[in-house]
Design brief:
The protein is α+β, with helices and mostly antiparallel strands. The chain contains 2 helices and 5 strands. A 5-stranded antiparallel β-sheet has the order 1-3-4-5-2.
Length: 126
């Protein structure tokens, strides 16, 4: 499963050099994951209301070129792998087709006590 969203870099997200601050890439990744889940027919709120909590266990970013204020970025998100309790995502941040950053993340499904639990069937492709 793959999805894309577009985000315009806001002034408040830049540093003194006018570049997108590195921490905001993680915020963009989360927004892209949220929309990918919505495209699959659910929201994080839906999952949490049913007792499924998705927690970030790993995240990586490789910065290739800087994004700047007012750039229109495309965030491409792909589900790379789904196991019984985990989802691995890959990300590309693009400006006019040029890759500015690449990343990955792993989410684990836990219950309200923080114990691992099986992902809901629809997330495991069942």
């Amino acid at each position: 499963m793959t999805g894309e969203i577009q985000i315009r870099v806001r002034y408040a997200e830049t540093d003194r050099m006018g570049l997108l601050h590195h921490a905001n890439y993680l915020v963009y990744f989360e927004q892209a994951r949220t929309e990918l889940l919505r495209d699959a027919g659910a929201t994080y709120k839906d999952l949490e209301d049913k007792g499924y909590l998705l927690v970030l266990t790993k995240v990586e970013v490789r910065y290739r070129r800087p994004a700047q204020y007012d750039d229109l970025l495309t965030i491409r998100t792909t589900v790379e792998r789904v196991t019984f309790v985990r989802i691995d995502h890959q990300y590309e941040v693009l400006r006019d087709g040029e890759v500015l950053a690449e990343g990955s993340s792993t989410l684990a499904c836990v219950d309200r006590d923080g114990r691992p639990q099986a992902l809901p069937d629809f997330l495991r492709g069942k």
